[in-house]
Amino acid sequence: MNKELRQAIIAGNWKMNKTRPEARALIEELKPIAAEATCGVVICVPFTNLETAVELTKGTNIKVGAENVHFEEKGAFTGEISAAMLTEIGVEYVIIGHSERRQYFGETDETVNKRTKAALKAGLKPIVCVGELLWERECNITEEVIARQIKLDLYDVSAEDVKKTVIAYEPVWAIGTGKTASAAQAQEVCAFIRATLAKLYSKEVADAVTIQYGGSMNPGNAAELVAQPDVDGGLIGGASLKAADFGVLLKAASEG
Ligand code: 13P
Predict the structure, then answer these.
(1) Which atom of ligand 1 is nearest to the CA of 175?
(2) Residue nearest atom 1 of ligand 1, based on CA coordinates
(3) Pocket of ligand 1 contains residue 142 by CB under 6 Å
(4) CA–CA gap between residue 171 and residue 213 (Å, rounded)
């Protein structure tokens, strides 16, 4: 199974949720719960909550991530945030290429690749999201879609850097819909991602990469999903907004 060769990580993706007082309350509630976890614990929060999250999680096992990063170091890019702006305040992870960015904000595999390289160069750990649309799954081209995303998103990323990269398999049809991929479907695609990485790099590199599942993961289905041999934790939307629910997922991944 080789699961011991990599870290299972449960990462929350808060998306556009939580004002600062709400963020403070959730993090304070989460701290004692997260302290029990042996898996990696990450919370990816809106830009406005990053400093609060970094400050409140100092000395705990909770790492902080952003939800996006720009690929240029600085300049005329209104509304964007650079990798250095994130690292200087203590951010360690960043989600890149989430399907909501691809769908609503014109993110492409080319910009995902640029953002991934910029993040790695600055010392951030990218969580690169890939996943097929429902239509693509129905047309039986899931593997083609995923292989293309993996190849393009990681183009020119070194073996050493890819080991620092987390891949999140998030079937677009399962995000926020309450429709979860079955454990078998999640395993099948996560194993396919690992096989693709083995072809592009080596088996040793592929075995070292954390590959998460994301899409309506919740306290009821998490244990079965994270027990799959190629599923190394999850990227969690809705269930990351409630400390108790997130805690159940942390426990599942710590045991899985
Ligand atoms: P949900 O867990 O709300 O389906 O969201 C998944 C997701 O998009 C995490 O990035």
Answers:
(1) 4
(2) 237
(3) no
(4) 9
Ligand 1: centre distance to CA 237 (Å):
3
Does residue 159 fall inside a structural domain? yes
Read off the pLDDT band of 176 (50, 70, 90): confident
User: CA-to-CA distance for 55 and 66, rounded, in angstroms?
Assistant: 14
Q: C-alpha distances in angstroms, 202 versus 100, 163, 198?
A: 31, 11, 4
Q: Which CATH number goes with the domain that contains 194?
A: 3.20.20.70
How many structural domains is the chain composed of?
A: 1
Residues annotated as part of the active site = 98, 170
Quick check: helix, strand or coil at residue 71?
Answer: coil
Render the burial of 106-131: b for 16+ CB within 10 Å, e for the rest: ebebebbbbbbbbbbebebbbbbbbb
Ligand 1: atom nearest CA of 98 is: 10
Q: Is residue 2 part of a domain?
A: no
**Separation of CA 180 and ligand 1 centre (Å):** 10
Ligand 1 centroid to residue 54 C-alpha, Å: 22
3 located within any domain: no
Convert the pLDDT of each residue in 51-93 to its tens digit. 999 999 999 999 999 999 999 999 999 999 999 999 999 999 9
> Which residues make beta-bridge pairs with 119?
none
Decide: 11 in ligand 1 pocket, CB within 6 A: no
- Residue 197 CB–ligand 1 contact under 6 Å: no
To the question of pTM greater than 0.70 for the whole model, the response is: yes
Give residue-wise pLDDT tens across range 83-130: 999 999 999 999 999 999 999 999 999 999 999 999 999 999 999 999
Ligand 1 closest atom vs CA 177:
4
Q: Which domain, by its residues, includes 146?
A: 9-255
In a domain, 1, yes or no: no
